[in-house]
Amino acid sequence: MGRAAADFAADYYEALLAGHLPVMSQAQPGFLRRALPAAAPEQAESGEAVLQDVKALILPGLTHWQHPRFFAYFPCCASVPSILGGVLAAAMNVLGFQWAASPACTELEQVIVRGVSSLISLDWLAQLLGLPPSLCPAASPAAGAVLYGTASEALLAALLAAKARTLAGRQPEDALRLVVYATDQTHSCCRKACMVSGILHLRQLPTCAEQGYAMQPQALEAAVQADLAAGLLPCFVCATIGTTGCCAVDPVAELVPVAQRHSIWLHVDAAWAGAFAILPEQRQAHFQGLEGADSYDVNPHKALLCGWECSAAYFQDIQWVRRALTVPPADSPYLVNDACGSGRMSLQLVEAAPGEVADGPAAPTAGTFGASSGECAGSCFASIAADTGSGTDCFSGEPASTPPKGSPAAAASCPASGPTNQQPVERQDVDIVFGHGGFRGLRLWMVLRMYGGDGLRCLMQHRLRMQRFLADMLAADERFEVVVPPRFGLVCFCLRGSRNQDNAALLEAVNSSGTAFLSHTLLSGRYVIRCALGGTLTQGCHVEAAWRTVQRCAGALRAAQVGGHRV
Ligand code: PLP
Known about the structure:
CATH topology of one domain: Aspartate Aminotransferase, domain 2
Strand content: 5-15%
Helix content: 40-55%
Number of helices: 19
Largest sheet: 7 strands, mixed
Oligomer: single chain
Bound molecules: pyridoxal-5'-phosphate
Distance between the termini: 51 Å
């Protein structure tokens, strides 16, 4: 059966390359419901029968993200190493929430235990991308990295860490005054993170074509000043390198002084574009100022061929993430173990407070936040210890002596700069969910090994060549306008002098042709077609085919308009 599944996957990719499958599904809503029985079978069916149905029913209902003529959104790229890594990971099916749960899994992905910083895949990636030492666990004692599933999770974790840092030593109700800054081009996951984390104030600073749709430092400063004057608490800036709509680049180096002046956490989201930093000239042109960022995220599942889901987040001071996301060990005595420092310390804490364990942990009291809602989890630990009159501070390993909550001294017990990574950072302490699976680090590790830095650099150059090709074709055809400078493999264009509905009609015609799948965005109210060049299988011939389709559809549209038909 394993062989049949492998053959199936190989046949699938051959069909994609040979153009035997349309890139977009032509299915109508409810098609699968009608084709499948209403209940699961009582008798086991053969794997062959199931694979037959996958071929006959599932494949026609897919939009094929790995199709070489998939140019929509940002591609989410798989590759032979990532598929292999995924198959192995699925077979092993380990969970790596802590070192003891699966040592090789955590050492490949995420663990800082007993002075050993072992994030092999993430350290390798940081080197390849030329990240500054301040963000590299291998170079900076306070830094840490986490392989999350998605950029949205990474942003949420960064926001929770920022919230913990801003609220340290403040009152719980101050959380209502926190403000997040982004632009009207920032990915919607920023708003989602605000919703999830209970942030009430999100400033989406307006951008414009003249400024390349980038965040303006002066506008940020003015917004911060206005919020301070209104009694609010600036907390978090989300800058983007390579915005989703048009690959705008927020000027990180110029935003850093603003963020630092006001002690605001600066997160840099480079979900798609971050992979291009593997090219030194791209790094030089677009990735300046990262040494001043508090957190940085890139999605290897997008341009770096690792397959969904795989998002590498780097933090200048990982302890703030840990403070935001660590639950008291008394909640999970079953996880206490002696394999790492946190286990040992937790055990002492649990032993010191048997009543707490039996009845569940102490609820966060006034002056402390639950770990997920803001103030550092350290306070939660300390409050348990203080309530029982004994215990150990979870960060320092020192006996806890807890000042009254909310007092300035309580703030001082949360060091402004977290402890170094000499202290344990287990996966479970920095994750939003508890039991992450999928052994993502294996996929990343296999991609890095089987492509190598050179192979990945070639791939990025290839994407930039395809981008230049399409941009040149568009520039040479007077019917079209390239709307923003093409960047990171993304070309945004529209029909010159056209109405929004003309461009929407053009996109609809191209996509329904089955030849290519492109997407759109709105820039300054204009409907713009996006062509993202970066699929693993995409070659020049596929871009040419898409371009010919765009030309043909534009011609047909023009002819229909001249002929008096409304589109
Ligand atoms: N940030 C940017 C700039 C993106 O383009 C995207 C998705 O395309 C995201 C965040 C969300 O990524 P994810 O799906 O990994 O959460």
